[in-house]
Amino acid sequence: AHLILKEYNHTACDPSRPEGCVRCSPTRPSVCCDLDSPSQFMSLDPPIPPALPKNPARSHVDTKYTMEAKEVDLCNALEEWRVAKAVNERGEACVMDYGPGFILPTATIDRIVNCAHHSKLRTVDDLRKETRWSGVALYGTEVLAIVNIFIPQQTNTPALVRAPLLPRPVLQPCVQSTDLLPAPASTSGTKKNKCSACGLPGHNSTVFSLSMEFSLLTVIRT
């Protein structure tokens, strides 16, 4: 049997109302669209996530150095630690299928060894800054303890202490007064020449002798 649908007319129920029956007539929306009423749709917008703080800049470490026995032992110890930790956390089957890198990646091990060689891993915060390893919060203390066994980090370096600056002396203004100037030397006490031949002041015996010789020559010539 076929069901014959008649055309629906909402005005047939109540011909006295131009908009049709109150119960059957379709309701008009109070808001048209987001273009006409954008403020009505603001609650439907997805929330904007807050901006994450930037990671602190990592130190530049020289990787072109010759690894010694302590760096090799540290690398082997970290690899053994991550295997044991991965087996303890997820089981041997998971480690066989996916490896232990989900606990501590190989690139992170290389970064730890390089930073430990240059004494950059003194605290857990240093380990977080230098490696940006997501497992620092859970395993940072254990890894840092392994690092200090093979390459002890210098943590007891005394900090530089700045001595306080001494205040500058306040200079007194210059006093321009004649009272502070030394008195001129008196000329009254200056010793005058005194002739030893005639006893008169103002000349010496040499001048007196020359004058006497000149007088005698004058008398002889005359």
UniProtKB/TrEMBL annotation:
Official protein name in the record: Uncharacterized protein
Taxonomy-wise, where does this protein's organism fall, top ranks first?
Answer: Eukaryota, Fungi, Dikarya, Basidiomycota, Agaricomycotina
